[in-house]
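ok so I'm stuck.
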Amino acid sequence: MKLIVVGPRGKMGKLITQIAASRDDIELVAGVAPKGRDYIGKDLGQAAMTGSDLGVPVVDDLSSVIDDCDVIIDFSTKEMAMEVLALALEHKKALVCGTTGFTPDEMQRFRDAGKEIPMLYAANTSKLVNVINKLLEVAAAVIGEEADIEILEMHDQWKKDAPSGTSKEMGEIMAHAMGKELADVAVYGRQGVSPREKGTIGYHSLRAGNIPSSHTVYFGFMGERMEITHHSYNWECFARGACDCAVFLAGKEAGFYTIKDVLHL
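replied:
not stuck anymore, here's the structure
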């Protein structure tokens, strides 16, 4: 499977490149950097700090290399991601996108893309996070109406969006399991006199240091509580999952896929 990595110097792009280079089922054909970066024109291995040259270039024009690939992985910025999506549609290339922070209208463009190309969107590509999402779906269906549900998520100081895309997905899964829409029940932080309203899902976001990713969902009852938690020690689990998604998507029919399809959840 021939792969292009968008943003190979980013925290995720770098790891995706390193892991893809070590796999026998993936052939890297190019990296695509935002215009003006000082590593454009260098070997992808140098840009991603793999420790050796990979014999493929880093370019700033996706259209110049897109026809050489089977799948594109994009964990860049929301602005660059929309450009990548447009080119993937134009050239009919499969796309894995893990960028977050999109508006509902922008997300709809990814869903609509599935009518024309194999499109996989995943706010979180960790295998364990997606197993937890299944547990949350079951828990919310059984006890969601009785419990006070709160989500606490922690990330590094550089994360741009809050709440995280992963926590939004968790909230949507639980809300849908209770027959609701997250937009109708989400409460983002509290200040002053703000007693808890029954049936809501509370969100709290921490940003500090270089915390990779941490999510805890609390189900509060009188006299007891249940916590479902995931901690990542680094970003490698997400990069491995992204590569699994790309291999899964290669050769697929047009459609909007999720990591549930990859993991058979």
